[in-house]
Design brief:
Strand order of the largest sheet of chain A: 2-1-5-3-4
Mean pLDDT of chain A: 97
CATH class of the largest domain in chain A: Alpha Beta
Number of domains of chain B: 2
Largest sheet of chain B: 5 strands, antiparallel
Largest sheet of chain A: 5 strands, mixed
Structural class of chain B: alpha+beta
Distance between the termini of chain A: 52 Å
Order of helices and strands of chain A: EEHEEEHHHH
Oligomer: heterodimer
Mean pLDDT of chain B: 97
Strand content of chain A: 15-25%
Number of domains of chain A: 2
Low-confidence stretches of chain B: none
Helix content of chain B: 25-40%
CATH topology of the largest domain in chain B: Uridine Diphospho-n-acetylenolpyruvylglucosamine Reductase, domain 3
CATH class of the largest domain in chain B: Alpha Beta
Strand content of chain B: 25-35%
Distance between the termini of chain B: 58 Å
Low-confidence stretches of chain A: none
Number of helices of chain B: 11
CATH topology of the largest domain in chain A: Ubiquitin-like (UB roll)
Helix content of chain A: 25-40%
Largest interface: A-B, 32 and 26 residues
Chain lengths: 158, 287
């Protein structure tokens, strides 16, 4: 079957690609566009390692078909830092040692950024519920929570 | 697999009606794409309904709200009007999945996936919601509770799909609530669940009620005896005891890894009493 031709915006750049009808957005990001920040953990929407935003909504890119993204605006972890300058969330993750193996980290950063854009001053409980769909098997979560709360405080002050 | 994204409901219905192999509707994709990945289903045609005009809208209608079939959980829970009028529906829908799933999942999809444990379904059944079904011969309306007929099976005919769900108007001193039991605090599937919608009169007596149970039978159960236990009462202890007993009696659960029959029968009664109390408070009672 012929491939679908999709035009979309990824991190502000107009992007065109060809894909199969059953290919996920995650597969296109990683295998066709070589944006390998989003990870495939479970492939079924449970782990959040593939989190991106689609038209401003946090989603699992493994549960989006690439074919659905015609005309959409997608933001991935690759668009988070400003050149060499890390986003405050990224910097605080390093300061707090909020990652070990790092597989969950891009998804958690994208998810945390989406929360802080909606709610710059979340409670710890709100943050923990927001991140319930992002699994981390290394840190035990506390360092992640501390890093996000610290970044949020800094971003409110800035 | 052919992927189609038609711009009208009629085109979508036509595509679904003419599809020769396995055809499926794609809205939020949080069930169908998982099923495809797991190899449970291999559709020949996937009809993405999200480009249909108006299908992502929440529209006031006759004092209630029409929820388009592609409205996500996140969008519905940001709609102040729906959350104020139908807080039980909003809280039930919000319990589904993670933030990421909320960005995509839909009420119509939760209904048509026909899982016995679907969180939003007891709430919309209690609410008396009406599904608008678009098909090759036009639209028809159907109570949402008549759509799931068995686990994974719906009453929709070939070519038909749910294009919107109407949450009806409600009178003053009326509200709803939804509670489920899961063994942890987030990201799990209901072991049993209860949706209650009720109306109080000026003196606080319940004049109308609907009680729906989830995850305790092959499909959602609307329990008339449970509603009758509340109607005419101020939700005193005797009425709540009768409500619980009616719910326990109506349960037809199975034993599985998430809960036993006896546990589900008991906890359904507890949840029903608590949900009725919350709905009563939201309705402005006890008066």
């Amino acid at each position: 079957m012929s491939k679908l031709h999709i035009t979309t915006s990824i991190n502000g750049d107009q992007t065109e690609f060809l894909c199969n009808s059953d290919e996920s957005l995650l597969d296109v990001l990683r295998d066709r566009l070589h944006l390998t920040g989003a990870k495939e953990g479970c492939g079924s929407g449970d782990c959040g390692a593939c989190s991106v935003t689609l038209n401003g909504r946090l989603v699992c890119s493994c549960l989006v078909l690439a074919a659905e993204t015609e005309g959409a605006e997608i933001a991935t972890i690759e668009g988070m830092a400003d050149g060499e300058k890390l986003h405050p969330l990224q910097r605080k993750f390093l300061e707090h040692a909020a990652l070990q193996c790092g597989v969950c980290t891009p998804g958690i950063l994208v998810a945390a950024k989406a929360l802080l854009e909606k709610n710059p001053d979340p409670t710890e409980t709100e943050l923990r519920y927001w991140l319930a769909g992002n699994l981390c098997r290394c840190t035990g979560y506390d360092k992640i929570i501390n890093a996000v709360m610290d970044a949020a405080a800094e971003m409110r002050g800035a | 697999m052919q992927y189609a994204a038609p711009e009208t409901g009629q085109q979508a219905a036509q595509l679904l009606a003419e599809g020769t192999g396995i055809s499926r509707v794609l809205a939020g994709g949080t069930d169908i794409l998982v099923q495809m990945k797991a190899g449970m289903i291999e559709p020949d045609l996937l009809v993405d309904i999200k480009n249909i005009k108006g299908i992502r809208d929440i529209t006031p209608e006759d004092g209630g709200f029409r929820i388009g079939a592609a409205v996500s959980g996140a969008e519905l829970n940001e709609h102040a009007g729906v959350c104020a009028m139908w807080p039980g529906v909003a809280e039930a829908f919000d319990l589904i999945g993670s933030t990421q799933v909320q960005g995509r999942c839909t009420l119509a999809g939760n209904l048509c996936n026909a899982s016995p444990a679907a969180d939003s379904v007891p709430a919309i059944v209690a609410a008396g919601a009406i599904a608008r079904i678009t098909g090759p011969n036009g639209d028809r309306d159907c109570p949402v509770g008549d759509i799931p007929i068995a686990p994974g099976k719906t009453s929709l005919a070939k070519g038909e799909f749910v294009s919107s769900i109407l949450l009806p108007a409600r009178p003053a001193n009326a509200s709803d609530a939804y509670l489920r039991f899961i063994p942890r605090t987030e990201m799990d599937i209901a072991v049993c669940s209860v949706g209650v919608s009720l109306t109080l009169d000026a003196s606080g007596i319940c004049t109308h009620a609907r009680v729906a149970l989830g995850a305790v039978a092959p499909t959602v159960l609307l329990v008339e005896d449970a509603a009758n236990a509340l109607i005419g009462s101020k939700l005193d202890d005797a009425a709540l005891a009768a409500l619980g007993a009616a719910c326990t009696a109506a349960c037809k659960p199975i034993n599985d890894k998430r809960g036993t029959i006896a546990f589900r029968e008991d906890v359904t009664a507890v949840l029903a009493k608590r949900a009725a109390g919350i709905a009563q408070q939201r309705a402005g009672g006890p008066l």
